[in-house]
Every structure is written in C-alpha cells, then in structure tokens.
Design brief:
By secondary structure, this protein is mainly alpha-helical. It is built from 4 helices and 2 strands.
Length: 125
C-alpha cells in the first residue's frame, strides 16, 4: 500500500508542476499585456495645462486688479484696485438707502445707450 501511494504522488508531481507553470506563464503574459497597453495619464497633462492657463490669466489681469485706470473717460468711470473698492463699498453701504440710490444712478450712467450717429448725407443730393 505504501508503494502504491508513492507512485500516485510521483505521477501527480508533473501535473502539479505543469499547472503551476501554466499559471506562472499566464501571470507573466497578463503583466506584459498591462504594461504594453497602459494608457498615459491624461489627468496630469490636463492639470499642467490648466495651471499654465491660470498663471497666464493671472499675469495678464494682475495690472487690471491692482491699478487705477479710466474704464470709460467719456462717462467718467474709473477702475480702482480691488482692495480700495472693498473699502469704498463698506464705507458707502453704512447707509443702505443712500448707497442703493447712488448705485442705481451710476448704473444708469454706465449703461446709458450711446447717442445716435448723425445721418450720412447722400453724395447725390
């Protein structure tokens, strides 16, 4: 009986080695397939592109946010730095009724329609 079980173990050994070998080959193939078919990360490229666009946007708009300038000289509208604008708003809105009426007057002035252009004379008249 002892020799019978020993023969069965010897016959099973090549089968076990073959199955383990097959699993090993499949694991290697799967790893190679994952390596060769890996898609490059789009998120990192996209994030870098967005950060560059944001930096360019801030660089272009920095003078607009931090300096005084005429917005519309004809209507006497001036652009002020953001920090000073905050101070002015807090100061003005101490009296909400007066601030609201001033705001409406400034908006009416800023968004007033442009005057009509003079009619063009016909050269044949």
């Amino acid at each position: 009986m002892n020799s019978d079980t020993c023969c069965k173990k010897i016959r099973c050994f090549p089968t076990v080695v073959a199955i383990l070998g097959a699993f090993l080959v499949m694991t290697v193939l799967v790893m190679l397939m994952r390596h060769y078919t890996e898609v490059p990360s789009l998120a990192a490229d996209r994030a870098a592109e967005r950060m560059k666009i944001l930096a360019d946007f801030k660089a272009v708009n920095q003078p607009l946010v931090t300096s005084y300038a005429w917005q519309d000289k004809d209507k006497a509208i001036v652009r002020v730095p953001v920090a000073r604008a905050k101070e002015l708003v807090l100061e003005e809105w101490q009296n909400p009724a007066m601030a609201h009426s001033n705001l409406m007057a400034r908006a009416a002035k800023a968004f007033a329609p442009a005057p009509k252009a003079p009619p063009v004379k016909n050269q044949y008249e």
